[in-house]
Amino acid sequence: MTMISARRYFLLGLLVLSTSAYLTVGDEGDPCQVRADIPGICRSSSACDNIRGYLQSGALSISQVPNCGFGAREEIICCPTVACCATETTTPNPNPTRVHLPEKERPAVAACEKIRSGGKPLTVHILDGERVDKGVYPHMAAIAYNSFGTATFRCGGSLVASRFVLTAAHCVNRDDDTPSFVRLGALNIENPEPGYQDIDVIDVQIHPNYSGSSKYYDIAILQLADDAKESDVIRPACLYTDRTDPPANSKYFVAGWGVMNVTNRAVSKILLRAALELVPADKCNASFAEQPSANRSLRNGVIASQLCAADRSLRKDACQGDSGGPLILEIDDVDGTYAIVGVISSGFGCATKTPGLYTRVSSFLDYIEGIVWPAKRV
Questions:
Q1: What tens digit of pLDDT does each residue of 166-201 get?
Q2: Is 170 a residue of the active site?
Q3: Which listed residue (218, 311, 317, 322) is catalytic?
Q4: What is the location of CATH 2.40.10.10 in the chain?
Q5: Does residue 128 carry a catalytic annotation?
């Protein structure tokens, strides 16, 4: 989609704290409900003195504080009208335009809040995929490799901060897989639309436990030479930070420019996506156990730091050329709110009875944050 209505743009702000049981539309001074047992009033975040006690005591997490909307300069939250019984710190908030984040809140969580409250509306090759409209996945990155003076695109990635791209370790772990640059903001990878950016890669950080003979720890981070300039078609994505699987009825998509026809191995020049479902760990392990080579590359089976996803009809899947791209959890399909839950790792064939294998992002938050936000500041 190209634009969203003013109402949808306003509602987008409500998704900053989308896990809350109470989402309130209101202006400053309107009554609201923080929780069933906690009354509140809509107030700018910098003026909500009571919230720090709830956050620091653990009575509430930042994701449980309802959002009333956005004022001219900052977020309007549902501020508790009664103070929490815990003792509050008297340390002043160095950034009064934002709610203070307790130490237990991760930089990835703060980064996601910043992305979703940035004031820019989000608009709402994969086997048997559907074309992705402009601006739907502004985090998508195509990784370019220099092949005898010609740029070839063989893997994908996700922009997670202005200068960092998340991808798979197996995409960048060999000398002939040294990335040259990433292409952002493009749907057509060969003839990109106006507004795209090519930014050189200056550093590659492969997870220290990754081995090319194994499917474990298949995750890496690329550092770019310059900050990506954010626009309607280029913007970082949120990371999914919960270590447990999302609700059973969640929607997932994979996206990329990889193989779209297993018969002729044709790759897509256009960004495509396909809907998938998570496969329970026991069923995934049973499927991989039937593959003899899995005994070498998955000696411990599919472990907790991995995910499996597939299409029940065995028609849609990630395929060669999609590696490193995202497994996307769709949170709200109207306003285009989503989070990266996995990194495309490997599989046995494409759209076969063996599910695709993904690196679970939430299992590697310490690794990601240590590189992308080393000082824990967003």
A1: 999 999 988 777 899 999 998 888 888 889 999 999
A2: yes
A3: 218
A4: 137-236+366-372, 251-363
A5: no
Amino acid identity, residue 185? G
C-alpha to C-alpha distances, 308 to 34, 279, 304, nearest whole angstrom = 36, 5, 10
Provide the terminal-to-terminal Cα distance of the chain, rounded to the nearest Å: 29
Residue among 158, 323, 346, 362 flagged as catalytic: 323
Q: Are strands 266-267 and 31-35 parallel, antiparallel or unpaired?
A: unpaired
**Which is the catalytic residue, given 170, 268, 287, 317?**
170
Q: Considering the domain 251-363 in this protein, what is its CATH number?
A: 2.40.10.10
Residue 170's SS3 state is helix
Q: Which two tokens stand for residue 221?
A: 């981070």
Three-state SS letters, 197-212: EEEEEEEEEECCCCCC
Is 0.85 topped by the overall pTM? no
CA distance 206 to 300: 21
Rounded to whole angstroms, the Cα distance separating 185 from 243 reads: 30
**Beta-strand relationship, 326-332 and 337-346:** antiparallel
Q: Is 323 a catalytic residue?
A: yes
